[in-house]
Write a structure and sequence with these properties.
The complex is a heterodimer of chains A (485) and B (211). Chain A is α/β, with parallel strands linked by helices and 485 residues long. In chain A, 50% of the residues lie in helices and 11% in strands. In chain A, a hairpin with a 4-residue loop joins strand 5 (213-215) and strand 6 (220-225). By secondary structure, chain B is of the alpha/beta class. Chain B has one domain (36-207): Rossmann fold, CATH 3.40.50. In chain B, the strands form three sheets. Chain B has a six-stranded parallel β-sheet with strand order 1-12-7-4-2-3, sandwiched between helices. Chain B is globular and about 70 Å long. The mean pLDDT of chain B is 95. The chains are: A alpha/beta (485), B alpha/beta (211). The interface between A and B is large, with 97 and 74 residues.
């Protein structure tokens, strides 16, 4: 089974990628089930929280405050992490981050490295970079392990294998772990993963993690998780490398009182995640004795400078927007062609690609704003989507070949017609005349020929009224004048 | 190379934010900080939450503690227990095998069926056990590898809300682990399975303070 393309630089546009997925009823069933379950849990736990809106307000304000003062907090984090025995590296892009990590692992003579699920490592395509350097990455999150062994790609930020069901997991594990008798109940499958990974935890001496939060005032890193694979990777190896986007900083330790509460409820519908870990630098006799943090820019500082788009960086990767999105719920994550799918992926991915790739993603939304409503840090995703769409249109206008694009020509014609009252009136008369032929008795247009069929393929169009507003207004004014006389 | 990137990143971050005025003091904090329950209510809520996670909970008076510890450990069906270096010796009655963690190897700890530790705090609202990994809570590895974790939580350590915990500990500890239920996954069809990697069994003794 060859995996879907999840590199935005080469992935097909969203509608093309979505089409075959929409015909995969098994995958859609799996996605619908998983998102329903998480949403129900999330909604129940949000409802019980009397101060939910106040927590959201604070969480959004803390994140916005960090972004407005990011330089200061990054330096503060660096100073404190270094003082605690950590080594801080800075990577301007994916390639540099990969190089830094490979170099550290080479110095450690590592041929294998255990990994905690990290979206940022998927963003920078770290596993292929490690493989090219002859280092085997072992994913230790259960979902990531399923995907790695199944040569598949993640389709969700929090539960990346939600598109795979138990029978498929059984098949993958039986084949790759050499366990032909393995039953397909989740308990047995989980136990198989536990046994398989326990050996790795005890024998591999280097680990890679992401970071949920970096604490500026103490130089600490926080990781939230459920399984304990995170604690294993953070505790057992000799050397640990944490890869974190520069936006992940929080000013103070106590800011976690807000962020941990909203993250757990939004991500998995829990009051707190089963395990949260916090550490600063190196602690003698406890855990890794060499610790590196790689701070990754990769387009983030550029996003920071844009007024509307900056809020994208407030994200804490809870994936609540994916679970609630009517588009994501139909297509799952693979259609987005990026590790970041769903509404947040639709705004984050093209920006990380400097708007040079993934331009179809801002259109992968109905703008219903359900994502905004659930977002624990109040990112106005529809606002950003619309702004990015405008940027895509601007780009297209730049490209001369668009002159042959019927849509572009149509817009030009419309611009001309709408630009002058006389021309507008004329266009209305022509339009009425032309559309009459296609309008049904009930006043609706169900089918248009050629280009117009692109619209009517999926929606009906109301026919034009017999009387235009302008005609009605002119008539009304005339009658009033008559009455007044 | 890295030094160059550092400067470059910080320069572009500063260029992007130079006009921003946003003060930490102005962050709105309208959420609930202090809880409304009395001590009994807190203990009850903590117990309920721990039960929801499938943890075993007993209360006991200080004088009974060593016996209760022994009873709980025996009931776990395991025989070898690791304890942190600062675990009080008078809590360690004979009847099971005790192994004090003086820099034990991972393999030695892995051989133990269970672990007994104290804790640093408990948050009732989320049923969270907090370990700051001091001498009484031990190194992180001892409460990770064994399959059974017995945790002793003093009543005076229990707070109702998460913000109350942060008021008690405004400075970040060097290490902290927040345990809200045993290791779990829902990665396969959202079916919740206990015990992927961390201890599968959590048992809590809520220790009443001296009356």
């Amino acid at each position: 089974m060859s995996g879907p393309v999840m590199d935005p630089r080469i992935a097909p546009p969203f509608p093309d990628a979505a089409l075959p997925i929409l015909q995969n009823t098994q995958l859609r069933k799996n996605v619908a089930h998983a998102t329903d379950v998480i949403q129900a849990k999330r909604n129940r736990l949000v409802a019980e929280k009397q101060d939910w809106q106040e927590l959201r307000t604070s969480a959004a304000a803390i994140r916005a405050h960090v972004l407005a003062n990011l330089g200061k907090y990054l330096e503060e984090f660096e100073t404190n992490c270094t003082a605690a025995g950590g080594v801080v590296h800075w990577a301007k892009d994916a390639a540099e981050a990969g190089q830094i990590i490979v170099e550290i692992l080479r110095e450690e003579n590592a041929s294998e490295v255990i990994k905690i699920k990290t979206m940022t490592s998927a963003e920078i395509q770290l596993n292929p970079a490690l493989e090219a350097a002859g280092i085997a990455a072992v994913e230790t999150d259960l979902a990531e392990l399923i995907l790695q062994l199944g040569e598949d790609e993640g389709s969700h930020i929090v539960v990346p294998a939600l598109h795979v069901n138990r029978h498929q997991v059984r098949e993958i594990f039986a084949r790759k772990m050499g366990l032909p008798q393995l039953p397909d109940d989740p308990e047995a499958l989980t136990a198989a993963a536990r046994t398989y990974l326990r050996k790795k935890f005890l024998s591999v001496s280097t680990a890679i993690s992401g970071a949920n939060f970096l604490i500026a005032e103490s130089g600490s890193v926080a990781i939230v998780e459920s399984e304990g694979n995170g604690r294993m990777c953070l505790t057992l190896p000799r050397t640990l490398i944490a890869l974190a986007g520069i936006e992940k900083v929080l000013p103070r330790f106590s800011d976690l009182e807000v962020l941990l509460q909203v993250l757990a409820r939004s991500a998995t519908g829990e009051r707190l995640n089963p395990y949260n870990s916090l550490w600063s630098g190196v602690v003698p006799d406890d855990g890794p004795q060499r610790f590196h943090v790689v701070l990754l820019d990769n387009g983030r500082s550029e996003i920071l400078g844009r007024k509307v788009e900056r809020q994208t960086l407030q994200c804490i990767r809870c994936a609540a927007c994916l679970n609630t999105c009517p588009v994501y719920r139909q297509t799952g994550g693979h259609a987005y062609g990026s590790p970041y799918g769903g509404p947040i992926g639709a705004i984050l991915t093209p920006q990380l690609e400097h708007m040079r790739h993934a331009q179809s993603l801002p259109y992968a939304s109905s703008l219903c704003a359900a994502c905004y409503e659930v977002c624990p840090v109040k990112i106005n995703i529809p606002e950003v989507l619309i702004d990015l769409r405008a940027q895509v249109v601007d780009q297209e206008r730049e490209e001369s070949r668009r002159w042959f694009d019927p849509m572009y020509l149509g817009m030009k014609v419309a611009n001309f017609a709408f630009g002058d009252a006389g021309r507008f009136r004329m266009a209305q008369s022509f339009g009425k005349l032309g559309l009459r032929f296609f309008t049904g008795k009930d006043g609706w247009i169900r089918r248009l020929p050629s280009l117009g069929s692109r619209w009517t393929l999926s929606r009906d169009l109301p026919g034009m009224a017999d009387q235009t507003f302008r005609e009605w207004w002119a008539k009304r004014e005339a009658e009033r004048e008559k009455g007044a006389r | 190379m890295t030094m160059g990137s550092r400067q470059r990143i910080l320069d572009s971050v500063r260029a992007a934010t130079h006009a921003d005025v946003n003060r930490y003091e102005d962050v709105p904090r309208g959420y609930i900080r202090a809880g409304s329950l009395d001590l009994q209510g807190c203990i009850q809520l903590m117990t309920e939450r721990l039960h929801e996670y499938g943890a075993d909970v007993v209360q006991c008076a200080p004088v009974d503690l060593p016996h209760i510890v022994l009873r709980q450990l025996k009931q776990s069906g395991r025989h070898h227990f690791v304890v942190p270096s600062g675990f009080p010796t008078d809590w360690m009655l004979s009847g099971v095998e005790w192994l004090i963690d003086q820099n034990l190897t991972h393999e030695e700890i892995e051989q133990c069926g269970g672990v007994a530790t104290a804790s640093s705090s408990g948050v009732a609202d989320s049923g969270t056990i907090v370990l700051h990994h001091g001498p009484m809570e031990g190194r992180r590895v001892i409460s990770l590898l064994p399959d059974f974790h017995l945790c002793i939580l003093r009543v005076s350590q229990i707070v109702e809300t998460l913000p109350e915990y942060f008021s008690r500990f405004p400075q970040a500890p060097r290490l902290a682990t927040y345990i809200s239920g045993p290791s779990a996954t829902a990665d396969i069809e959202m079916t919740r399975i206990k015990g992927v990697h961390g201890p599968r069994f959590l048992s809590v003794i809520i220790l009443r303070d001296d009356a």
